[in-house]
Amino acid sequence: MTVAAQWNEPDAHLGALPAGIRRAAEHMRTNAYRGYDPYDALESPLFRLPILRSSKLIRFAAQQTLKRIPLNIRPALGIPKGYNPVTLALALQGLSYLIAAQPLRHEPYREECDFLVQELRRLRSTGYSGDCWGYDFAWQTRFDLLPAYTPTIVATGFVTNALFTAYDLLGLEEALPLCTSACDFLLNDLNRNVGADGEFCWSYSPHDRQWVLNATAKGARLCAQVYSVTGNPILLDTARNALRFVVAHQSKSGAWPYAIGDARRWADNFHTAYVLDGLNEFETRTGVLEFSDAKITGWDYYRTNFFGQDARPRYFDDRLYPIDSTACGQAMMTLCGFGDFQTAARLALWSLDRLQLPSGAFAYRNYGRYTNKIAYMRWSTAWMFCGLSRVMMGASEPPAVLTDGAL
Q1: Rounded Cα gap, residues 58 and 38, in angstroms
Q2: Measured torsion, CA atoms of residues 117, 123, 125, 127, in degrees rounded to the nearest 10
Q3: Coil, strand or helix: which one is 351?
Q4: Is 180 helix (H, G, I), strand (E, B) or coil?
Q5: Residue 212's beta-bridge partner residues?
Q6: Which residues of 27-42 are buried (b: 16+ CB within 10 A; e: fewer)?
Q7: 324 forms bridges with which residues in the sheet?
Q8: What is the mean pLDDT of residues 362-368?
């Protein structure tokens, strides 16, 4: 399998896809895009108590424990359903794919896209050089406590990618200035780890010095996207130097470690996919082929090591479980972006069969012997909706089985 692989008609029938997408969309809208998150433990009123609030170890342990419990005890802990900008962004991106796939049928959903863009505008974090976004909950990393709405390059990268997709596919002009402004956040507010030849890695947030490769690839993607419209040479140079850092830390196998300078050296499915998407988008938007070899090597590693014969995505390259909903949703987008529609379609149908719940939401993770059926709005349902919609757009003949007025 190579980057130049041709799109093939899937060997699996996609008739179930529109109904699954519609049910996921209805679940998100019925809940006004509000829901729980794997990392929202610190939103419990218990963490207003001084002994809990002041301990990094307790905060981190509580967050990790709650993430792993297969029973949703958040209501008992007083944790409210959150309204996450990334959830809205993934919904916007998925709707953009659907409208692009079947414009006449899905044109009525432009109004929903307009609403989502305005909400993303409203939910910007303030006090920075440019537009930026963070999660709506406080969370404890291994190093720092990030209060709610602390902007990060990751959240900003997800939001701006959705905004640019809406601009690019639907012509939503109001989305582009938010992307352009976000470049100022990258250029002026984030710290940099600079190499000898000017290559660099951005920090995760303005308040730390974590060097996370997939996060920097997201920043490079944004700069390349805005460059493709504005022609600003600073953005092209910035994107190129950021990706030079990322590519310099690619292993001979094609893998990328999660982070540089600390113990987080693992490679996993969806963080690898984020890097590949950044490289692919840079090449598409700029026409610069400097990173083609690294992209091809990375794609071959990803496709060979992170998927079994049945298309299920492995979490790590040496083990299958857990099968994670974010990994499934992101894999569909990356597979489609690199031309492997057949695997994306098979994964879509597997996900609908094994992860979608009666409510239309998606379960968090499948562990083989059991499934954690907590339906996280951002991590599970929004990501799966976006991935499934990307498969719908990629189908050469999307199934026309929807009724008027239904997604």
Answers
A1: 16
A2: 90
A3: helix
A4: helix
A5: 259
A6: bbeebebebbbbbbbb
A7: 365
A8: 95
Sign of dihedral through CA atoms 215, 249, 280, 284?
positive
Yes or no: say if 402 and 14 are a contact pair by the CB < 8 Å rule. no
Q: What is the DSSP letter of 372?
A: E
Q: Is 82 helix (H, G, I), strand (E, B) or coil?
A: strand
Integer-rounded Cα radius of gyration of the chain: 20
The pLDDT confidence band at residue 13, using thresholds 50, 70 and 90, is low
Phi-psi region of 266 (alpha: psi -120 to 50; beta: other; left: phi over 0): beta
CB 203 within 8 A of CB 192: yes
> DSSP H helical segments within 123-260, as ranges?
153-170, 176-189, 213-230, 233-248
User: How many Cα atoms are found within 13 Å in the side-chain-facing hemisphere of 69?
Assistant: 13
Q: How far apart are CA 97 and CA 336, in angstroms?
A: 12
Residue found under tokens 């992101």 = 330
Whether the CB-CB separation of 168 and 246 falls below 8 Å is answered with no
Out of 81-90, 257-266, 391-400, pick the least confident.
391-400
